[in-house]
Amino acid sequence: MVYRSLVRPILFRLPPETAHELALHSLSFLKSFVGHPFESPALNTSLFGLQFKNPVGLAAGFDKNGFALESLAALGFGSIEAGTVTYHPQPGNPKPRMFRLSEDQALINRAGFNNNGAAAFAEHVEAHRPNCVLGISIGKSKITPLEHAVDDYLASFELVYELADYVAINVSSPNTPQLRELQQSDQLTSLLTALQTRNLELQKTTSRPAPVPLLVKISPDLERRDLEMIVDVIQRLKIDGIIATNTTVSRDNLRTDRARVDACGEGGVSGKPLTDRSTKMIAELYELTSGLIPLIGVGGIFTANDAWEKICAGASLIQLYTGFIYQGPRIVRQINQGLVQILEREGLANITEAVGSKFKQKRKEGTIAGK
Question: Is residue 77 included in any domain, yes or no?
């Protein structure tokens, strides 16, 4: 309550990116509003050969350069996805590039992967690893032509390889020209084949006991046929998981005045307007994969009920970004406590028992065909 009544009004008087940077560098102060993280064995999750103390993660984009990973972990996140980092340092798109739509509990951003580059990221994070699962998101440098995208991703991948508990391959940001074209079948196959090959090669020359888990982050603006193609590629190449979803370019069903939305210009929408869209996509992916490929659910999660909906739709883990901005640092504790209460209400011993339960129930009732 202190965050929303005192801290947030101050932050929201500042330009969104200024407020973001201030919050990022004030996390040790903000932690005083949280206390000790909430923990329960009912939330423990084992996935990708990793142990997550709870399913609530921080999405990529909040800490692109890995400056605050230790402080963020102290808030109780089960995982943090740092980045997105690119091989070449880049300033991102011109400012202003982040906008609040408070009536919609949403953000529009076109940051454009502003970061210090994968080499600087790796040097810093090596000395400041968080006390939780660390995912690292990699993307294409803006100056790199699409035809050289594979080499660009590989260069970043090699630099972060030994630091990452998993690597997220971002091919879905709407803010880097042509990036989403990498979701097309031939492009995606070439990229993921190269990364998986290098993954196996690096594992043999490092101390890793197994190749690093690879996950693909996809757009919420894809059609069913696109999802079918992506699932086919991921299954063939034995990619470990899917992150669903990134931000949307859609401006449908917003409460904010249309003229004010248009004045923000291009960029991806995150937050509440994405809640149902991303949950629907998670359900589709769970059905297409028969629950055999782990999913991380992202988009419009503000409460334990939001998280529960995504888990029941098929997400093994969930991630926050915009909800964290609007609700403050206690959101991690609130969601984890709420999930334990829901588990007790449903008579379940562990959160993993709820994953995909809506699909399983429909199949049991015969309303969908089993595979």
Answer: yes
Q: Are 359 and 286 in contact (CB under 8 A)?
A: yes
Handedness of CA 140, 314, 325, 253 (dihedral sign): positive
**Residue-range definition of the domain harbouring residue 217:** 2-365
CATH number, residue 104: 3.20.20.70
- The 10s digit of each residue's pLDDT in 292-349 is 999 999 999 999 999 999 999 999 999 999 999 999 889 999 999 999 999 999 999 9
Question: Do the Cβ atoms of 77 and 332 come closer than 8 Å?
Answer: yes
Q: For residue 181, tell me if it sits in a domain.
A: yes
| Domains: count for the chain | 1
Which stretches of 265-330 are DSSP H helices?
275-289, 304-313, 322-327
Per the domain annotation, does 371 fall within a domain?
no
Query: How does pLDDT run across 167-214, given as a tens digit for each residue?
Result: 999 999 988 888 898 889 899 999 999 999 999 999 999 889 999 999
To the query of whether residue 173 is one of the catalytic residues in this protein, the response is: yes
Question: Which among 346, 350, 370 has a CA at the least distance from the CA of 360?
Answer: 370
**Residue 38 contacts by C-beta under 8 Å, 6 or more apart in sequence?**
76, 332, 333, 336, 337, 340
370 lies in some domain: no
List 79, 172, 173, 219, catalytic entry: 173
